[in-house]
Amino acid sequence: MDLLEKIDKRQAIVAIIGLGYVGLPLGMLFARAGFRVVGIDNNPERVSSLQEGHSYIPDVSEEEVRSALSPRENSAGGMGCFRATTDNEVLREADAVIVSVPTPLSKSKEPDLSYVVAATTEVAKRVHRGELVVLESTSYPGTTEELVLPQLSQGGFQAGRDFYLAFSPERIDPGRADWALENTPLCREAAACLYRTAVRQVVPVSSARTAEMVKLLENTFRAVNIGLVNEVAIMCDRLNIDVWEVIEAASSKPFGFLPFYPGPGLGGHCIPVDPLYLAWKLKTMDYHARFIELADQVNFGMPQYVLDKILLALNAEAKAIKGSKVLVLGVAYKRDVADTWESPALDVMLLLQERGAQLSYHDPYVPWVSQDGLELRSIALTTEALEQADCVVIVTDHHSYDWAWIVQHSHLVVDTRNATKGMAPGHARIVKL
């Protein structure tokens, strides 16, 4: 039975390397589609948690994990189920392997593909005829052909003849219920056949390079526009104009305008990272991606801009930053998630700590912070905590916060998210980004 027939009959075994915020939802997706799925992760705690029916990804419920652990007969007579392991030997029995590992930046802002190389090395040791290998990890155009393909071909196998190779960019937006994984991955040939079993729409493109570039364009579009609106916020501040009012009015235009919103900086796994992968690749070809570099400079400077707003706000109260009690609300990189990856809140907090502020924070999703020189636990958000703070800084606008109550019991609020829109200051003085 060839691969396409196995896929059609849901008898293909799908292995997913990397069970993070992309890999785990992907595993659940294919298990629901009726495939036997093996998730591989080098973190034994993650594996143990999943095998016990627990989820560490907010967008994957424990009920979903427990359901996937129990084999269920699919429409083709196969048994859809999921299991997790640290053992790469299971790759020998896989018909399709999806590599979904992190692709971070180094401290010098260059691509760190060590996780992709390590995962591909394990696949290459066990690659076999008729197998499909898909790279889901976001990287620069050419990664699939220049890095993954040579490793898989070392034993004399040829892509397209002995095995299939494709790139499929994920489009996950953590915390959103209206746009989930099953909406639109891109893939080609055998990969398209596999993904059609589990997603609503497959968008084939001509090459892996094109698919890689599609993902980078999507995130570069967002990073550049966020950089633009962040600079507009700085300009409006100089001109004594409310940037939020400007954006709201501009949004009434029915064509030619798409609203983006300023904030304390960029966070997450994609937007701060992916455009720099593209810029790095172009540098190797003697081309400078000026829009990307400029947007990165603006976005990277926003935590310092927030600090400056806090300093000026405290100065207006005849208080120095050193020794002032500063309470930060929200440290996750975006609202309603528990992820602090590249969160600008951490940069703001580090700057406050360096200036001698008595720092505390509250986040309903992040019970503690232990990284980059910060060692803090989330405090209880009480009337007393708000009243004792010299300055309350809104960095992440979780929906669970009662902003009216927060403003009522605070003395000074620096709002970087327009969370207090339309709110009468009451007891607090409100300073916006």
Task: Provide structural commentary.
The chain has 433 residues and is an alpha/beta fold. It has helices at 3-8, 23-32, 44-51, 62-69, 114-126, 143-152, 190-196, 208-238, 243-250, 274-283, 290-300, 302-316, 344-354, 383-388, 403-408, and strands at 13-17, 36-40, 72-73, 79-85, 96-99, 131-135, 163-167, 325-329, 358-362, 368-371, 374-377, 391-394, 412-415, 429-432. The protein folds into three domains: 3-204, NAD(P)-binding Rossmann-like Domain (Rossmann fold, 3-Layer(aba) Sandwich); 213-299, N-(1-d-carboxylethyl)-l-norvaline Dehydrogenase, domain 2; 306-432, Rossmann fold, CATH 3.40.50. The strands form three sheets. A seven-stranded mixed sheet has the order 3-4-2-1-5-6-7, sandwiched between helices. Strand 6, helix 6 (143-152) and strand 7 (163-167) form a beta-alpha-beta unit. Helix 8 (208-238) packs across helix 10. The longest helix is centred in the middle third of the chain and has 31 residues, at 208-238. It starts with a helix and ends with a strand.
